[in-house]
Amino acid sequence: MAEELDFDFRGFDSTNLHKDPADDAQGASQDSAKESVKDAGDNPGKGKVKAKNASKGNGKKSKKKAKHGDRPALFEPMVLRGMTIRNRVWLPPMDVYSVFERDGRPTRFHYQHYVSRALGGFGMVIAEATAVCPEGRISPYDTGLWDDGQIESWRWIAEGIKEAGATAAIQLNHAGRKGSTGCSGLGYIANTVPAEDGGWPTVAPSAIAYGRYAKPRALSIDEIHGITWAFAAAARRAVEAGFQVIEIHAAHGYLMSQFLDPLSNVREDEYGGSFEGRIRFLVETVDAVRSLIPQSIPLLVRVSATDWAAGGWDLDQTVRLAKVLKEHDVDLVDVSTGGIVSGVSVPVKPKYQVPFAQQVRARADVPVTAVGLITKPKQAEHILEKGEADAVEIGRAALRDPYWPLRAAYKLGLPKEKAPYPMQYVRGAY
Description:
This protein has helices at 2-5, 21-36, 48-55, 59-67, 108-119, 151-163, 221-241, 255-260, 275-292, 315-327, 354-364, 377-385, 396-400, 404-411; strands spanning 7-8, 12-13, 78-80, 83-85, 89-90, 124-131, 167-173, 181-183, 187-192, 203-204, 217-218, 245-250, 299-304, 332-336, 368-370, 391-393. With 430 residues, it is an alpha/beta fold. It has one domain (2-8, 76-428): TIM Barrel (Alpha-Beta Barrel). The protein is globular and about 60 Å long.
């Protein structure tokens, strides 16, 4: 559970329990650096930033830089299915548990949350895990797209993200046995919300509970098919609302990953048993979603590359899955880890999930993103330079600093005229 692991597998880390000490040093030195460095954008030949980079320069470094043209790899555009994303620093889907009316409709807070990150320079902004049906929510305060009446509530958010220069994406989810759980503002943290306070019975591939959550009911085959088409219908609504990219959530112990892992899926029908059986639900859902969205829309899938548990889902199976997803027109695999088993030991540290992304990229030959305590610009840049991922996702650091990409551009020596500044913010450039 979240308290035991010091990690919230619902989408983001717990508060500063694994904080990188270098973060504070970086922040503390920023003001003094501003005093001693003239605007690198106005005069790129001067300043501490450029001098520091130059002092580290060698043939190998220059060769890597040349590969990415005249700008840092983080700020190279990326093309998916003909769609150009302005850079490779993305905002991952992070639940904010703020639909206090419990109707799945995002609010003014959601608009401010997502559009501020688009104004801050992120290349892609991925909206939080959004339920494809009411009982698919993680908590009663989750967003949804299970009804056409929710489309308009999302439209201004998608348009605001795009008007700010970012690519608007949304993650679709069914929580399965990890649904009807508590959250900040509601209570019942790491517990099932009782029916009298708006909770609901949960479902799963098998009647196996997660931690101390309520025991779920095993889904019938007809119900599995219904959820598949609920994903597809939600994807259609997302496109109608203006989203440009769709992501299916198959990680962190939610319904899709519950089917993938033999520790949570002990079915004996065509949706269990073998590797092919356990991935069937996800693959059929990918096909259904692809059938209802335009061919021009990139389709992403988030996976847990390992569940950190003996006998469970692991990297080799993830690579096999990524190859299958590629054959079914998935454009990128969003690589994370964990969430299927409560109480497991997870080696949380900076970049701890990056090696999994690198392996999936290399062995399955698919574009990937990396996520997991990536907090510093040079750290993110090195991931791309070394070919460990095609884009990086900045989560917890983006909650602290909505304008993280603009600071990163400055730290990496990108002139302000090439950085993703909104026109209105240029006069405040680093």
